[in-house]
Amino acid sequence: MAEQDEKNIIAERTKEYGQQLWGIVQKQIDKQSEEKQISSTPLSPPKKESKHKVLLKLLFLFPLLLIGTFIGSFYWDFNGVQTTVLGVLIEFEGLMRILSISGLIGFLTNWLAITMLFRPAKKKTHFWSGFSSGSKRSYCLPLSSCSI
Asked: How far apart are CA 22 and CA 93, in angstroms?
């Protein structure tokens, strides 16, 4: 009888130890799955309020100003104005038209380049289309911290 009781005690202890071990394993599984869920959520860059927010909103007026200057150059454009610098005669005729078209072309090409880099029309998986999704954060975060 004592031998039977000893076997029962050993079986009960083994069962308790098994349950304790299973509890420890479950806690570790839960802990590791929580860590994976936390680390798998993408980290967003910190929101930074720009000091030049008003200037950025007024930037849309720049092409309108250039177009207005171009149209105005048909009515008045330094006609007949000239000067001499170091013995060289410089005429200013057509200067407003040249500057307005050059500024408009420069503004539009810069806008197009930035738009194509950060917002490609079609996302291509077989070739580079804008910044790749995986490296977008590594490029955008340092660029966004640059001051204007």
From this structure: 90
Q: Where are the beta strands (DSSP E) in 11-131?
A: 82-85, 88-91
CB of 72 closer than 8 Å to CB of 64: no
Q: pTM higher than 0.85 for the full model?
A: no
Provide the b/e sequence for 56-66 (b: ≥16 CB within 10 Å).
eeeeeeeeeeb
Between the alpha carbon of residue 134 and those of residues 41, 113, 122, 139, the distances in Å are 14, 20, 16, 10
Q: Which residue has the tokens 């580079």?
A: 128
Q: Tell me: the pLDDT tens digits for 84-115?
A: 999 998 888 888 899 999 999 999 999 888 88
